[in-house]
Amino acid sequence: MFEARLVQSAILKKVLDAVKDLLSEATFECSDSGIQVQAMDNAHVSLVSLNLRSDGFDKYRCDRNLSMGMSIATMSKILKCAGTEDTVTLRAWDNPEVIAFVFESPSKEKLAEYEMKLINMDQEHLGIPETNYSCVVKMPSQEFARICRDLSQFGESITFACSKEGIKFTASGDHGTANVKLAQTAEADKEEDAVIVNMQEPVKLTFACRYLNCFIKASPLCAQVQLSMSSDVPLVCEYKIGEIGHIRYYLAPKIDEDDN
After folding, report:
1. pTM here?
2. 232 and 129 Cβ atoms separated by less than 8 Å
3. DSSP symbols for 16-80
4. Residue 113: which region, alpha, beta or left (left: phi > 0; alpha: psi -120 to 50)?
């Protein structure tokens, strides 16, 4: 049997909001250590990696490893039926054909149960190699979201340039050019407002706006986002999920025609 209970259904809603524009369906790998999802987006350009640790749930039980193919859109619709204060329990039996979502109101007076049919999916688990990154930037997630939204009005891609001074974001197109520079903050009053750049060597990479604008949907999950970059390897955009886990997005840089 598999059972996972969260006191805050809102966390799961935010996680689904963060992936539903990229994934239409995904395999949820459940084991005694937690729940993992690794899936390419529909265009096979970006990779989403989600990890929810078992010790982050209020109650967690997984008697044997389960791979459950789920429709993200259907799951999202079901979670919209949960009240903001409701607890949510995911439940499935061995060799399941359905997964149950049980919502319970704080007063315990209302109990709602939804069953969702599982999908058969042939998905190989993608190995993500360990990489030492040339540049790791931590910055406020809302600030990063705003930069991505603002700059995507000027071009289809954004160039990230990391140096000792900080990080610079640039977009250019037919209508002009937009630049946003963020200096490293030595003394931020609050940790979540800080911009921290750990750099081994300068990095300059260009990424497609349409994917960055999907990644920033994870901003409500946490106050800070971590961007890890190296030349010629995918960007890793990581958001922590409370005390329970993280979501990471991987996006390959665009190859600049001028470089060839």
Report:
1. 0.93
2. no
3. HHHHTTT-SEEEEEEETTEEEEEEE-TTSSEEEEEEEEGGGSSEEEESS-EEEEEEHHHHHHHHH
4. beta
Q: Does position 80 have pLDDT exceeding 50, yes or no? A: yes
Q: Are 228 and 139 within 8 A, CB to CB?
A: no
Phi, psi (rounded to 5 degrees) for 16: -70, -40
User: What are the backbone dihedrals phi and psi of residue 147, each rounded to the nearest 5 degrees, phi first?
Assistant: -60, -45
Of 30, 42, 36, 41, the C-alpha closest to 2 is: 30
Query: Encoding tokens for residue 230?
Result: 């190296």
**Predicted pLDDT at 124:** 63
* Integer Cα distance of 131 and 128 in angstroms: 9
Read off the pLDDT of each residue in 8-23 and give the average, rounded to a whole number: 93
Residue type for position 181: K
- Does the pLDDT of residue 128 top 80, yes or no? no
For 92-113, what is each residue's pLDDT tens digit? Answer: 998 899 999 999 999 888 999 9
E-strand spans in 141-223?
157-163, 166-173, 176-183, 196-199, 203-208
* Burial (Cβ within 10 Å: 0-12, 13-18, ≥19) of residue 26: buried
Q: Are strands 46-53 and 245-251 parallel, antiparallel or unpaired?
A: antiparallel
Per-residue exposure over 99-128, b if at least 16 CB sit within 10 Å of its own CB, e if not: bbbbbbeeeeeeeeebebebeeeeeeeeee
Residue 54 Cα distances to 27, 34, 76, 81, angstroms: 17, 4, 21, 24
